[in-house]
Amino acid sequence: WDYPLMRNISEGGCFLETKSVYSLDGKIDLSIPLPVPLKISVIQLEGEVRWVSPSESKPGMGIQFKNISNKNLSALKDFVRREL
Questions:
Q1: Strands (E) located in 1-84
Q2: Of 55, 2, 8, 35, which Cα lies nearest the Cα of 63?
Q3: What are the tens digits of pLDDT across the range 38-77?
């Protein structure tokens, strides 16, 4: 199993550190668990691969979030603000 690590999350996207990379413009469904006490516990959204890391020591891909609902965007903004 390859468990991706989500890094550098922002309101617009994230970096997924993983050996299982998708092709550019590939679609990916994401479930992002959020810490309590935010309004929702998991954000469900879709993303698109915008770039792939050439690094063997840190393989992965840059994901742009797509079609995010207002509820999920609000929760994501709260999460990003708390983490910064």
A1: 5-7, 13-17, 27-33, 42-52, 60-66
A2: 8
A3: 778 899 999 999 999 988 899 999 999 999 999 999 989 9
| C-alpha angle 68-4-43 in degrees, rounded to nearest 5 | 25
Closest C-alpha among 79, 84, 81 to residue 36 = 79
Written as six digits, the tokens of 13 are 């996207």
Helices (H), the chain: 70-83
Say if CB 75 and CB 34 are below 8 A apart: yes
**What is the DSSP pairing of strand 60-66 with strand 13-17?**
antiparallel
Work out the mean pLDDT of the chain and round it to a whole number: 90
Name every residue whose Cβ is closer than 8 Å to that of residue 23 and which is 6 or more positions away in sequence: 49, 52
